[in-house]
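Dear support,

Our group has been running a series of protein-ligand predictions, and this particular one with NDP is the one our PI (initials K.S.) wants archived with full inputs and outputs. We had some confusion internally about which version of the output was final, so please treat the block below as the authoritative record. The input we submitted was:
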Amino acid sequence: MKALSVLGSTGSIGTQTLEIVEEFPERFRVVALTAGRNLALLCKQVQRHQPEVVALADPALLSELRERLQALNLPRCPELVAGNEGLCQAAAWSSADLVVTGIVGCAGLLPTLAAIEAGKDLALANKETLIAAGPVVLPALERSGSRLLPADSEHSAIFQCLQGTPWADTARLSTGVPTPGLRRIQLTASGGAFRDWAAADLAKATVADATSHPNWSMGRKITVDSASLMNKGLEVIEAHYLYGVDYDHIEIVIHPQSIIHSMVELADSSVLAQLGWPDMKLPILYCLSWPERLETPWRRLDLTELGQLTFRAPDPAKYPCMDLAYSAGRAGGTMPAVLNAANEQAVALFLEERIHFLDIPKLIEAACDRHRNDLKAQPSLDDVLAMDQWARRFVRDTSSVPLAA
Ligand code: NDP
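Confirmed final output from the archive:
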């Protein structure tokens, strides 16, 4: 019986993790939950899973949560904590064996580090944490011996392919050390909401358009990132940190059906791929069950039902975020933190309808350009947090003046 701490339990990753727990009650139990603002759903989850601790991001909501839980007459009320400190407590909860990081954005950084410092294994969904703070997270993993299991479907696909190689030793599990024999990674991308739009039509893109993903059901921020292909750009940096492959050997290929979740090319030129319907439950389950495979009744892949799988190169002119991410990854140090924070802030402004979709890459590029002379190659946690705050402020301030066409 594996005990889980589920960070961001009210989100898309969190709710799917809890569905898996309900499907395998003999294998998994929940000891800690954390949420942002969705108290109604959180209370239902507490009632169903009876965790030992519950953490809320916003301390101001704690008394309302306490009242709501008291009204439920639970046999045992969980310990209630809040704020960054509370999230970190839940992440490092002593009885948890594995921490699922489903918080969106860099808000997940401190809880993730707390889990690592407590020696917990992680199912990493919250990619922004690794992208912003790779130079801090990777050494912390080395020190603590925590294992980082990738929940992102592409990185799970790579991880699953590598299980079949002679280098599948767990010592190399996601610590940024170059994986021997791994020559190239090909990350597949659905192409997001705008994959069938002409680049010229993006000028008309609305929030409703950008948040309608053709293949995956996900939170709003990552759905916009998919539409801009920033999600794939962030995944390139994630793959670099997880598997130690240099940027020249990590490629993006548009694969509209989202059946192949990514591919690896090995030293002898063999290419391995992992296939499945686009459903996040499989990569999440694999994090939870690894190194075992559990029997599921889930829909089985039938290639004849699909008929064809297609591929094309992404258009850099249509998706400028992709090149911005490669360039930030190559610059290294604090640059990916700036890229990530600028993107988070720009996407938030877009979702509030305060900027246009096409302003997102312009604001990110401006932030990265401004940061170039201040880049720190070996940043501390404080450097990362300071640059994160700076980039958000920069984007907010810059967005309030008209942007160049
Ligand atoms: P959602 O927006 O659906 O959920 C985000 C979760 O984080 C919610 O529980 C939310 O709480 C909580 N949260 C929001 N802000 C804060 C904060 N400041 N402090 C603490 N908690 C907060 O996101 P997703 O589940 O889609 O994504 C989560 C992470 O997983 C992201 O990093 C994303 O990139 C990654 N990911 C997601 C995939 C998916 O299929 N969804 C696929 C691959 C990766 P509340 O709702 O209560 O306010």
